[in-house]
Amino acid sequence: MKAALILLSALLTAANACTLDGCDHPDCGGCGGACCKLAITINESTESVMNKLNASIASGGPDGLYTGMMTAEGTLTFGDLRAYDKQIDFIGQAEHLTINGLYTDTVNFALAPLSDTSTEVKAFSISQIAGAYCDDGQNYLNILQLVQGVKWVDGDLELDQVSHLDDSCPEPTE
Description:
Layout: H1 2-16, E1 35-42, H2 46-58, E2 66-68, E3 78-80, E4 90-97, E5 104-115, E6 118-127, H3 138-148, E7 162-164
Antiparallel strand pairs: 1-6, 1-7, 2-4, 3-4, 4-5, 5-6
């Protein structure tokens, strides 16, 4: 019986692991539980970045598992804060269902202008289930696959445009 429980536990662990490209930044409690916080520089206006991310999320994102969330401004996925003279122009939120269909994570966005033609995207993904620890890089993937799945004016997003804002989802140690 004990051997069967060990085998079942191993199978469940393998089924829950993030195994896609980009699942190489596991977070072991960066926010108490598993999370990831990144800053991404994109050479487009905040409105262009918002529209492209919004369109991707509305269609389910690159893997079809993203869903836009209602904002405090009463709009789906992104709220426009430009009328309030804040440091950011747009704020947004989406949920992402993991590929195994077992977990949902929340992804938050803040889009700030660096210039008229450049935007800093601050993105934060956090696992919604209590006890998520060492997430196999799922929260990093939630952000990167969405942003890399968009067709940007300058072409594909390069990883040198991505920076870690804290000790969550660290770079691989290999």
